[in-house]
Design brief:
11 strands; alpha/beta; Amidase signature (AS) enzymes; three-stranded mixed β-sheet; binds glutamine; 15 helices; eight-stranded mixed β-sheet
């Protein structure tokens, strides 16, 4: 039984060679969760019984020769993905007892590929946050230092992968929620292009920004999983019909002659100098492989956080109007009439950050303020997107830090929303522009992981994964485990 963290690629090989069974892998994953998750709080729901049954089915498929490469490998889903018959809470009291009647497309496709979900991971309430502290189910701890946050909102998935509880977990990235927790937890976090992966069955937060992503141990693993989840789905009208290329085939492509754009605004005063040093050291690795570095500019970067925090709450306030205590979700006991039923159900069901977003969003959409805020933000969104597009006329990929600092302490920013929002400075533009991006571990700052972010043009997933994989072929940062050593 593999003791260390193992990649999906390695586990798939062991399973294929008959050196381990899916039941053994899944049982080991469940045992680790049992041992470590009281402290980490990475899981909201563990589905041991279903997981073992699915593992047996995967073992049978392997024995019959009908299994695909991912069959039998354990994984977990962020608790924002609807799972038929298993609770989907979205980290909220509002959905504490919600059981979806159907699976999200991502859930369905991974199950069809034979991957075995062991449960649902903890997250910021309705994916609103950068620290996984706004969860109704309590904060998630960072395996590198349990006094610190693993980032958010997919913090449960990031912590679970970092601690080796599962080799891969799904996440969603509306403003950075896959890449930022990956950076703070020392794992690989990949967000495909908006529309590359179906949003069907993902609890909606901000629909023009939401995208499913992957937290894993390597870019190679991210490629294997993207291969399965990407592609057209008629149940999501924004899902692209573009053909899905063979991501693994391009992973090794040489980088000689390729150009990497370095946005100077990403290295401004807000960036922790040691994180900046780690990114610069990573860029040298690309240079050694024959890639060229070029300075580029994203002149509207300082407007990205304010723009995001208008567009995102606007869409959230609209999406979250469905939680009225009538159809599904929390219903207040204390309701005399229809008005107080709506009001009290929402008052009791939502936490502070969700209420803050609903209020901000409703405000910017209201008559009289719509033009000044929402419409203006939409225009600036276009400028931010144009800036990035212009860079790609000159360079193949954009590189920079994922976050301004390494993991911060639990409690440090939760009472200061603006400080929390500023943590998203390097990630939100990518969502505003709908681009693919990845965060990969690139160094250590006071014993905590630092993240390198790579951003590509629309639908250039293969290129982003190729750059990340080439870096991981030359370095060991993605193999470092919390508490020292490699795995
Ligand atoms: N931290 C950002 C926010 O709070 C992004 C969240 C996300 O990507 N789900 O909105």
């Amino acid at each position: 039984m593999p003791e260390q963290r193992q990649t999906i690629a390695a586990l798939s090989h062991l399973l294929g060679a008959g050196e381990v069974s899916s039941r053994e892998l899944v049982q080991a994953s469940l045992d680790r969760i049992e041992e470590q998750d009281k402290e980490l709080n990475a899981f909201i729901t563990v589905t041991a019984e279903q997981a073992l049954a699915a593992a047996d089915a995967a073992d049978l498929a392997r024995a019959n020769g009908t299994a695909g490469p991912l069959a039998g490998v354990p994984m977990a889903h962020k608790d924002i993905f609807c799972t038929a018959g298993v609770k989907t809470t979205c980290g909220s009291r509002m959905l504490e007892n919600f059981v979806s009647p159907y699976d999200a497309t991502v859930v369905e496709r991974l199950a069809d590929a034979g991957m075995v979900s062991v449960g649902k991971t903890n997250m910021d309430e309705f994916a609103m946050g950068s620290s996984s502290e706004t969860s109704y189910f309590g904060a998630v701890k960072n395996p590198w230092d349990t006094a610190r946050s693993p980032g958010g909102s997919s913090g449960g998935s990031a912590a679970a992968v970092a601690a080796g509880l599962v080799p891969m977990a799904t996440g969603t990235d509306t403003g950075g929620s896959v890449r930022q927790p990956a950076a703070l937890s020392g794992v690989t976090g990949f967000k495909p292009t908006y529309g590359r992966v179906s949003r069907y069955g993902i609890v909606a937060f901000a629909s023009s920004l939401d995208q499913a992503g992957i937290l894993a141990l390597s870019a190679e693993d991210a490629a294997l999983v993207t291969q399965v989840i990407a592609g057209f789905d008629e149940r999501d009208s924004t899902c692209s019909p573009a053909e899905v290329p063979d991501y693994a085939a391009e992973l090794d492509a040489p980088l000689k002659g390729k150009t990497i754009g370095i946005p100077k605004e990403y290295f401004d005063a807000g960036l922790d100098s040691a994180c900046g040093d780690a990114v610069h050291a990573a860029l040298e690795v690309f240079k050694q492989q024959g890639a060229k570095l070029r300075d580029v500019s994203l002149p509207n970067l300082s407007l990205a956080v304010p723009t995001y925090y208008v567009v995102c709450p606007a869409e959230a306030s609209s999406n979250l109007s469905r939680y009225d205590g009538m159809r599904f979700g929390h219903r207040s006991e204390d309701a005399g009439d229809i008005e107080s039923l709506f009001k009290n159900s929402r008052t009791e069901g939502f936490g502070d950050e969700v209420k803050r977003r609903i209020m901000t969003g409703t405000y910017v959409l209201s008559a009289g303020y719509y033009d000044a805020y929402y419409l203006q933000a939409q225009k600036v969104r276009q400028l931010i997107s144009d800036d990035m597009q212009r860079c790609f006329d000159e360079v193949d990929i954009i590189a920079g830090p994922t976050t301004p600092t390494p993991a911060f302490k639990i409690g440090e920013k939760i009472d200061d929303p603006v400080q929390m929002y500023l943590n998203d400075i390097y990630t939100v533009s990518v969502n505003l522009a709908g681009l693919p991006g990845i965060s990969i571990p690139c160094g250590s700052v006071n014993g905590l992981p630092a993240g390198l972010q790579l951003i590509g043009p629309h639908f250039a997933e293969a290129r982003v994964l190729n750059f990340a994989h080439r870096y991981q072929m030359e370095t060991d940062w993605h193999k470092q485990v919390a508490g020292g050593g490699q795995g």
